[in-house]
Amino acid sequence: MASGGGAARMDPEAATELVRKGATLLFLDVPQRTLFGIDTQVFSVGPKFKGIKMVPPGPHFVYYCSPSRHSNEFAPTVGFFVTTQPSEALVRKWDAQEERLIRLPEEEEIRYTEAVRRFEFDDHLGPYNLDSFGDWKQLSSYLSKSVIERLEPIGGEISIAWESSWMDKSPQSDMERRLMEQLREGKFAKDAPVQSEKRGCYYTNIPVSVKHKNISRDELTALNLDKTSLLESVIAKSYQGQEELLLGELQFAFIAFMMGQSLEAFMQWKALISLLLSCSEAPLHTRTNMFVKFIRTVYFQIKHGFQRTQDSRSSGDMGNSLFLDEAWFSRDMFLYHLSKDFLTVVLEAPVVDGDLLSWSRKLKALLETTFGWDLENNAVNLIDEDDEFAPVVVEMNGS
Question: CDD domains, per this entry (predicted)?
Answer without folding.
Answer: Aar2_C, Aar2_N
